[in-house]
Specification:
74% helix, 0% strand, disordered C terminus
């Protein structure tokens, strides 16, 4: 088995055995990674070289897809105000990311990164408090999926 295949198998096992809270953390970590990658493409003048524009867009699109996944996992009935507030944040993040992608706005990316990092820290605390039971064994433990 090649290194890449082993790593992919490890990732799949990590996701399949994670608790619901840990799955949310993994999504946030993916968003953080992609935002950092997009930000790293800015040069010392806060510009993106023409050869990096496509990669920049890919990182932002991946982040937007992750945020959209977070949106669809919200249970608006059970989550009530928390779910509504998270939905508003996620919509706002995607708007900011779309604008940052079009205008190559590093400050907007850094703002979204800061906010997502703070949310990820909160979700890590939640995930650690639920005794890391696999998601399949704790249905709707965090009331985020229907």
């Amino acid at each position: 088995m090649s290194y890449q295949n082993a790593y992919t198998a490890y990732q799949r096992t990590n996701v399949n055995t994670a608790s619901q809270g840990r799955l949310v953390v993994l999504l946030y970590e993916g968003a953080i990674k992609n935002l950092n990658n997009a930000i790293s493409l800015f040069d010392e003048n806060d510009k993106i070289k023409a050869c990096n524009i496509e990669q920049f867009g890919i990182h932002i699109q991946k982040t937007q897809a992750i945020i959209t996944e977070l949106q669809v996992t919200l249970d608006m009935d059970k989550g009530k105000d928390i779910a509504r507030n998270l939905m508003s944040l996620y919509l706002y993040f995607n708007e900011q990311l779309m604008d940052a992608n079009i205008n190559h706005d590093k400050a907007k990316l850094q703002f979204v990164l800061k906010m997502i990092s703070e949310l990820a820290d909160s979700w890590r605390q939640i995930a650690n408090s639920e005794a890391n039971a696999p998601a399949a064994k704790v249905p709707n433990a965090l009331n985020i999926v229907g």
